[in-house]
UniProtKB/TrEMBL annotation:
Substrate binds at Q156, R229. Pathway: Amino-acid biosynthesis; L-methionine biosynthesis via de novo pathway; L-homoserine from L-aspartate: step 2/3; Amino-acid biosynthesis; L-lysine biosynthesis via DAP pathway; (S)-tetrahydrodipicolinate from L-aspartate: step 2/4; Amino-acid biosynthesis; L-threonine biosynthesis; L-threonine from L-aspartate: step 2/5. The keyword Ubl conjugation does not apply. Signal peptide: none annotated. InterPro entries: Asp_semialdehyde_DH, Asp_semialdehyde_DH_beta, Semialdehyde_DH_NAD-bd, Semialdhyde_DH_dimer_dom. Residues 4-120 form the Semialdehyde dehydrogenase NAD-binding domain. Its EC number is 1.2.1.11. It catalyses: L-aspartate 4-semialdehyde + phosphate + NADP(+) = 4-phospho-L-aspartate + NADPH + H(+). This is Aspartate-semialdehyde dehydrogenase. GO terms for molecular function: aspartate-semialdehyde dehydrogenase activity. SMART domains: Semialdhyde_dh (SM00859). Homodimer. It comes from Tissierella simiarum.
Length: 329
């Protein structure tokens, strides 16, 4: 069945990748409508050999036969326009953090919790990129052993901040002004992603904590996180220290990951084989390595998780949710 599709934020980094991945996966698009801010109005974007004109988003944008609207235009746009689209009977798949923690909004990683899409009420949220790549190996661990605690440390590329992040990386150390960061990011690491909260955490850290519990449907898991920006263009890395509830053999962990959907195990330290951003860039798999027991606690496990934050972390996951939507509705 063909789908009338709207893309909100079509000219952004994720928006452009959404179109690329819709083409790659031959998603059944009937009519396509592209929306962005006034500064992009009139831009031409090619899709499946045809030119499409970008329209300025406004409250009348959804007064046409659109079935599904994919949003990647920031939280403020989602807050205003997702409800308008929903009222007009469209289904919204939103990349922003705005709706993720609403109890009536499914937060979906198709390899992890596909059935949660069944009770959507018009808005479905795409999780944060570093959360998506983390829950993919955590799900089989939760199912097989139960998880009691997770410590996340992340190393997130500048493309997570969009086109402005990529520009800031090129500005070097002495530039007086940066679009996305409070300090130079080249030759540096900034332990600050999104805004700081009163509890000393950043919103990005609280996203990882809260979204992981929601997607794994287990609010009792104890989680802490430290998220940092690193001078890499594409590909987020996550170190996860995990305390399992039950005992395990490390060989069984390798077997479990090797048979889990969406995962490629790259783990042969003697031959310098482990996941790195340069291996994950442009791919949709989540790469797991440095798998080893944490001898400092009972049932402790360390893993290193790398994924392309723009593809599987945003655009591909969004398209996979759209494919799930067609499958179920
Ligand atoms: C970041 N995860 O990396 C956030 C949003 N993409 O900036």
């Amino acid at each position: 069945k063909k789908v009338n599709l709207g893309i909100v934020g079509a000219t952004g980094l994720v928006g452009r990748n959404l179109l690329k991945i819709l083409e790659e996966r031959n998603f059944p698009v009937d009519n396509l409508y592209l929306f962005a801010s006034s500064k992009s109005k009139g831009e031409k974007i090619m899709f499946k050999g045809e030119d499409y004109i970008v329209e300025e988003l406004n409250e009348d944008s959804f007064n046409r036969p659109i079935d599904l609207a994919l949003f990647s235009a920031g939280g403020a746009i989602s807050k205003t326009y997702a409800p308008i689209a929903k009222e007009k009977g469209l289904v919204v798949i939103d990349n922003s953090s705005t709706w993720r923690m609403e109890p009536w909004v499914p937060l979906i990683v198709p390899e992890v919790n596909p059935k949660d899409i069944l009770n959507h009420e018009g808005i479905i949220s795409n999780p944060n990129c570093s959360t998506i790549q983390s829950v993919i190996p955590l799900k089989p661990l939760e199912e097989a052993y139960g998880i009691s605690r997770i410590i996340f440390s992340t190393y997130q590329s500048v493309s997570g901040s969009g086109l402005g992040g990529l520009e800031d990386l090129e500005k070097g150390k002495d530039c007086p002004y940066f679009k996305k960061y409070p300090h130079p990011i080249s030759y540096n690491i900034i332990p600050h992603i999104d805004d700081f909260l009163d509890n000393g955490y950043t919103k990005e850290e609280m996203k990882m904590i809260n979204e992981t519990k929601k997607i794994l449907n287990n609010p009792s898991i104890k989680i802490t996180a430290t998220t940092a920006r690193v001078p890499v263009k594409y590909g987020h890395c996550v170190s996860a220290n995990i305390e399992l509830k039950n005992t395990f053999n490390i060989e069984d962990i390798f077997t479990l990951f090797n048979k889990s959907e969406g995962i490629d195990v790259l783990d042969d330290p003697k031959n310098n084989v482990y996941p790195m951003p340069i291996l994950a860039e442009g791919k949709d798999k989540v790469y797991i390595g440095r798998i080893r027991r944490d001898f400092s606690v009972e049932n402790g496990l360390n893993i290193w998780i790398v994924g392309d934050n723009i593809r599987k972390g945003a655009a591909t996951n969004t398209v996979q949710i759209a494919e799930l939507f067609i499958k179920y509705f």
